[in-house]
Give the backbone structure.
Amino acid sequence: MGKSITKPKEKAEFSTKDYGNRSSLRGIFKILGGKEVLNRKIENRLDLIEISNKGLSKNALERLAKYLNYSNKQMADILPITERTIQRHGKNQSFNSEVSDHILQIAEVSAKGTDVFKNKSKFISWMNYPCTSFANRTPFSLLKSKFGVDMVLDELGRIEHGVFS
């Protein structure tokens, strides 16, 4: 007897909604101006990749800066872009994918931080206060790189779970 051929099982259901914390995604959506600014919903982390590739508008960056109470200069200090380039961009003109990706990362930190501290003001104060776990650097100063963003998100996770370093 030869090998028996089995019928393939029904196609498995795969949901991209399993990727990413829903409240964090909602927070990013709200911080960047919602559907009015983004022109779409954010239902999963794959949507963040699409948004990054398409490019975020100056309007989204301004919403993030306003949320954090930061100036264009402060935002330019942590983004791969100059303050002058930010000023020259039209309100609905899109930034390139590198800048857009970085804006999304900062929005993710902002959403997570506000959720962890349960208060935007407390989160913003924490962002500007030197932390011993960051060698007395402020969390804000670490947002210049993906590695720094990851460190800040990790620290927020520790705070959320009561593990202080």
About this structure: The radius of gyration is 19 Å. Residues 20-160 form one domain. The CA atoms of residues 56 and 94 lie 5 Å apart. The longest helix spans residues 97-117.
